[in-house]
Amino acid sequence: IIHTDSLDMLNGATILADTFGDGNAGSIDITAKSVNLSNGGVITPATFGTGNGGSITITADSVLLDASAIQAVTTFPADDPNAAKGGNILINAGSIDIRNGGQISATTTGSGAGGTIDLTADSISLTGDNGASGLPTGISAASGQLFGDFLAVGTGNGGDIVIKPKNPGALALTITDGAQISTATFGSGNG
Q1: pTM of the prediction?
Q2: How many CA atoms lie within 13 A of 81 on its CB side?
Q3: Would you say 96 and 61 are in contact if contact means Cβ atoms under 8 Å apart?
Q4: How confident is the model at residue 176, as a pLDDT?
Q5: CA neighbours within 13 Å on the CB side: how many for 122?
Q6: Computed over its alpha carbons, how large is the radius of gyration of the chain?
Q7: Which of 38, 52, 9 is nearest to 97 (CA)?
Q8: How many CB atoms lie within 10 A of CB 81?
Q9: Closest by alpha carbon to 183, among 113, 130, 124, 133?
Q10: Which residues contact 129 (CB under 8 A, 6 or more apart)?
Q11: Contact in structure between 23 and 52 (CB atoms under 8 Å)
Q12: 125 near 163, Cβ under 8 Å?
């Protein structure tokens, strides 16, 4: 649990809540006026075992991801369909600004279902770099993931993306310069 006026994560700074066994990963709960991730900052709960991934909850006035990521990942091929589920990402903010290869993603490359991305905001701005970084900018939920020329295929179902306004009918959503919102599947799991 992090409660602060400003959370600034720069140059590869990372907050992790991972599991490599059968225990569930912990959750990440951040409350701040501003949450700023730049130049490779990462917040991730992940499961690399049969335990379920933890969730990320961020409550802030503003969230900035500049060439940085908030990711919920599950990779383990378990026999039990209720095992190794990905964590959820919940962000409630006045503004969410994702740019220059920044990402919010929930991905499964294993048998567990991917987590849900749930964003509530007054404004969401996605500004890509028109492919200059080689990284997609945006919001994605997927079963499977492309890493350069390598494709990791999952059998678990991809998660959902839910975007809603803080005040009914008042969401300003801007997507420019190659940014995207996507759900996808690269394997046998549903997108």
Answers
A1: 0.90
A2: 4
A3: no
A4: 94
A5: 8
A6: 16
A7: 38
A8: 13
A9: 113
A10: 99, 100, 101, 137, 177, 178
A11: no
A12: no
Q: With CA atoms as reference, report the closest residue to 166 among 95, 98, 99.
A: 95
Task: Calculate the CA 142 to chain-centre distance.
Answer: 11
Pairwise CA distance, residues 133 & 136, whole Å: 8
Cβ atoms of 56 and 92 closer than 8 Å: no
| Tens digits of residue pLDDT in 106-152 | 887 777 778 899 999 999 999 998 777 777 899 998 876 666 675 66
* CA 37 centroid distance within chain: 13
Q: How far apart are CA 158 and CA 161, in angstroms?
A: 10
Give how far Cα 135 sits from Cα of 31, 85, 131, 138, 157, Å. Answer: 28, 25, 7, 10, 23
What is the pLDDT at residue 187?
Answer: 67
Listed residue (79, 125, 119) closest to 102, CA to CA: 125
Mean pLDDT of the chain: 87
CA distance 31 to 92: 10
Residue 19 buriedness (CB in 10 A; 0-12 / 13-18 / 19+): buried
Q: Write down the pLDDT at residue 185.
A: 73
